[in-house]
Structure formats: structure tokens, C-alpha cells
Amino acid sequence: MATATASHGSAGGGIATQALTAKPNKIDSKVLLGELQKVYTSLCPRGYSTLPVSVFKSYLSDTQKVATYDEHSGNEEDVKETGVQKWVHKVFGHSSQSFSAEKLLSDDQDITFDEFVSYHATPTNSALALPDSKEKDWSRPLNEYFISSSHNTYLTGHQLYGSSTTEGYINVLSRGCRCIEIDVWDGDDGEPEVFHGYTLTKEISFRDVCKAVAEHAFSEGGSLWQGGAGEGPVIISLECHAGPKQQEKIVKIMREQWGDMLVQGIEPENVENLPSPLELRRKILLTFQAKYLPPPPKATPIDVTAPRVPPPAVSDSSSDSSDSELEELAKKANKQKPPKAKVTRALAALGIYCSSHHFPSRAAQPFTEEPTSRIPNHVYSFSEKVFANLHAQHAESIFHHNKNYMMRVYPFGLRFSSSNADPTEFWQRGVQLVALNWQKCDEGMMLNEGMFAGEGGYVLKPDSYRPGGRGIHEDKRSLDLTIVVIAAVNIPLPEKSDSPKRFEPYVKIEVHTDAAPGLKKKTKAKRGIECTWNEKLEFKGISGIVEKLTFIRFKIHDEEFGRDDLAAWACIRLDRLQEGYRFVNLINNEGDPTNGLILVKISKRVY
């Protein structure tokens, strides 16, 4: 079987893909070995049973699009020894198989088939090219990055009656999330509590949440980029419904639990420019919306006013209140307009680099003419629905605003099942903080996984999306993409399937771009968890391409009895998609890394 080392934890923040891609694949499946043997044989000159190094180098350059030359020479024809040595060290430094790397420094030896397979098993031969941690630019201001963000982080399931737990915070932080949400209310015993107001979700201690964040916000090891949480700054989106007295308690708890990690001691009014993630390494920042509301009353299943917590007999599986009844209650609560915010000075003083400001949802003037839009550290926060309405009126000014200032978009309040909108719609408009419901592995979270794989939660925006960049349309290009789906092994079964013999997988490839949505092509269905297709899927002349904001999704579905259940998937940003014969590492339909692999041949042209 072909296997890849999997990491614990679900997909969504890029860590699952990073873990799969960072280690060698073990290739001993007859299906994959047979297909690689065909490639190897086709490369061997007539009369040769092994592959000359010179031919292998040409294969690397022409098919795999690998630069083995000295990058300082700028001459692909001049394959300098120093460049080859550098490439050999990068590619085979992790290889556990017996590849004689020195052969690449000479043209008078041959590459055996085992060595050819060894090369294809290395992490650098994945379809995904992970970013080089030493080359990533962490020095730009916060507004110039897309930042991996979570909505209602404390929930682990349904938005109306799912469990609230500190595990929600531990989970998303370990998966690479760098902006989390805390909804805090007055607690009955004088201790602030966290829960989803006006729902049946159970409260948890604000102090416990802060403790969990303190313990899991950052990984040890001294790397901004490394797997897990990393060391990039964490932004806390604090939705404060507490009164002045418990706001003082909130400030005290944050200072006690976070200590030197909490950014404080700077007057928000004195901020002239936003710092970089590098300057904020291992720091916790605060942005908040303060809404002073009286604590909602305790609820019963028949209370139609303001449900807060379920009685002991109510659970997800045994509630007497139907989903539709709960949804009606939530709709009523969603329409309630909170009174004017009352914020204590102590809490307001902590909104230093991300100071929340209100933008009138029915404003007629462009964003750039709103007085608060010129405050260097302001953050506008909108639901996806409000953002869509504003964008219909102010598309150009929103884009230019987001070059210089921060914006957050979060899911519409009636997404009760924790579903998500398409995050690319907001990234395309320059929104830095696209908050998603991490409780569910849906299309939105798949795209988030593709965006942030190996990025430490921060992706530098394309040049045209940053200050001094050109307009919204100038940098868009066109794409020709061809992917030959060769074979797949260790395909995980769909959730409701238990028989590999009845499993009928097919591969669907989607090009996800803002300008041309719905670009999908698929192979024919086969049978079993190891299949061979050798089918070519072509996408020609796709316009409106921004490489960093275009995603290629590989999905395997089960065609048995027309069910079309999702079995496995992978999502790769176009700028990270490597050409040539590559392996795609698969994630299952629940978001967990697997041993599944697809062998593909990729060619792309961006022009």
C-alpha cells in the first residue's frame, strides 16, 4: 500500500495538508509502481534499461518544471554544481529510501527505477509546493495579510444547541487559526461567561477560555511558520455583552491569564501604522464589539422569549423543541437591535491595533469618505449579508479601503447548521479576516485549508491588493490547465459506506475562481479503493485569474446507486500547484488526513 504519515486533527486551517505534504510517501502499491514504471520506461533511451542522469535532469526541467540550476546564475542551460547540490539537499534530505544523490552531480551514471520512485516519494514531489519558511515575508503590516479566522469558536456543532467548550479554542488554534471569537456575557456569580446568546447553548467560564488560549495560542520551537499553532499573533474578536462591572473583571482576567502576551500600554489614538506579524510574534491582540445587554433569562423548551441554556433533559438528540421552532426563536433574536454600546475605559484601552468601528450599513458615501475609515487601526466588521449589500453599492471603494485597513466578515446569523459562505468571495475583495464556522468540513473550510496550507495562518496578499498596487482588474490573467488523473490508492470510503467492493469512485476536479465559478470536470467511475483511470481533464482559456486566489479542488465521490457521496478531497492554491507527475494527498469527508493518494500529471499555463 502507499501511505503518508497523517497528523491528528481536522482540516480547515492548512495544518492537515501541511502534515501530509511535509513527509515522504511510501510507495509500494502495484498500481502506482506500475504507472511509474511506464513513465520510467518511456524516458529510457532505446536500448537502455536504466535512465541516464542527463535524461533525468531533462525530465526534471522539462516535465517537472524543477530548477536544478544555480538560481544566482539566471541561466537554466548552465547547470552549476552548487545549484544541483542545493536542490539535492532540499529534495532528498528527508528521503528514507536509498537514492544515490551524488549521481546528479555527474552525467556518467544512470538512475535506477528504485531511485526514480524514491524521487517521486519525496515531499517536494507533492502536487502542493509548501512555502519556504525562510523566504516568507512576515515584515509587512497586518492589513497586507489574509488571516485564518474562526466564528463562534466556542461552539463544537450546531449554532442553536451545540456544545460550548474550551476544546473549541484548543482545536482551532492547533489547526492554525489566528483570529478567534469570544462572546462574553455577565455571569450569575459575578464571573463572566462565554456562550451564544439567545440560543440553547451552554455557557462556559470566560476565565477557562482565556486559560485555554494562553496554553494553546502558540507552538514551542521558535518558528512563525511551523506546524500547529506556530508563533504568528492571535487576534481575539471579543463580542462583549457584559455590563461595566464585569467588563472590569474581563480586563483583569485577560491580564492575569495572558500576561506579557497581551498587547497593552499603548493608547489606541496614538497608533499611526499597523505593526507586522513579525513585530507581534507570540502576542495576543484584541478587537471587540461592545453591546451592553441585560443577561438573557434562563430558558425552557417552551420559552419563546430568549432561550439561553437547555434544561437538563434537553440534548441534541432528545429535544422536545424542533429545529424549526428553535430557528424561529433565533430569527426573532437576530432582529433585536442592541442598545448603544457602553464600554469601560479599561476595556477600550486594549483595542490598540484592531479598534472596532461602526460603518453605517445604509451609507450612501464610499468607504473612503467615511470619517472613521481614515483611522489607522480601525476594523470594520460585517455579516456576509450586510457585506454583500454594501459591496453592491461600493465595490471599488471597499477594495481600495482593504488595501490599507482591516475588515472582518462573519457568517450570516441564520446559518444554524454551522455552514459557510464561499470565503474566496471576500478574499477577492481584500477582506483580511474571513471568519468561518470551523465546526463543519464544508466547501468553505476546504478552500480555507487550501489558502493557509503551510502558511502559519498568514498569507501575504497579492501585490495589487496591497498599498501602491494597481487596480482591482489589472493583475488578472488567463489559465490553461490540464490534469491527467492516472491512478489512486487507499481511497477512504464515504461515511455511509462499508464495502470497498461496492465502492464506485470517480475523480472530480474543480477550478475555483471568482470570475468563472462552476468549472468542473470528472472521470468515469471505477470500482474499489485502488483504481486506474489515465483520463485527461482540460480547462482552457479561463479568464480573470489571480493565482493566489484561485483554487484547484480534487474530490473523489462514490457513484454507487447515484448517491454521489464525498469520499475524499484535497484543495491546492493555483500558485502552489506543481507541474509534472505528482501525488495529491487526500483528506476524508470529515476533514481528517488519510493515507490516500492520487497520481496525476499536471501542466498549467498562466498568461
TrEMBL record:
Q: Where is the composition biased (Basic residues)?
A: 332-341
Q: What class of enzyme is it?
A: hydrolase
Entry-linked CDD domains: C2_PLC_like, PI-PLC1c_yeast
Going by the entry's taxonomy, the superkingdom of the source organism is recorded as Eukaryota
Leader sequence range is: none
Give one GO term, molecular function aspect.
phosphatidylinositol-4,5-bisphosphate phospholipase C activity
Reactions that this protein is recorded to catalyse: a 1,2-diacyl-sn-glycero-3-phospho-(1D-myo-inositol-4,5-bisphosphate) + H2O = 1D-myo-inositol 1,4,5-trisphosphate + a 1,2-diacyl-sn-glycerol + H(+)
> Function of this protein?
The production of the second messenger molecules diacylglycerol (DAG) and inositol 1,4,5-trisphosphate (IP3) is mediated by activated phosphatidylinositol-specific phospholipase C enzymes.
User: By what name is this protein known?
Assistant: Phosphoinositide phospholipase C
